[in-house]
Structure formats: structure tokens, C-alpha cells
Design goal:
Length: 74
Amino acid sequence: TKINQTNTEGNTPMMCKVQVVRWKVEIILNSSLSISIVCKNFLESLGQRIEKLSNRRIIDIYGEKYSSLEILIQ
């Protein structure tokens, strides 16, 4: 596992390259997040299904707001 660290205004995001089944992806580790965001194709390839609609709003790093479409309950 390769770990990259970048300091940004006092925050230290940690990125890792990981493999989940056949997918190789980069992830950002952040233990303070209340949600995790993954694409629908990724969930489907893992055999997971969406269980209910979401009413959460997500704000990206540029301040743009988006609606979360669905929720997977673990």
C-alpha cells in the first residue's frame, strides 16, 4: 500500500491506493466523515444494492451543492 500525505492549511488528508475485488482505486482516509461516497457502478460490481433514497446534500471542495441519490445500509 502506497500512502501519500499532503499538508493543506493545517489539515493533513491521507490518500491510499487500495484494491477492492478487481477495482484499484485511490481513497482519502478521513475518520471524521459522517458519510462515504462511492459510485453506483462500483457498488453494483460488488453485488451491493441501494436500499433507500437519500435526502443529504453534499458540498464539494469548490462549494457546489449536490444531492446524494441513494443510501446503502451496512
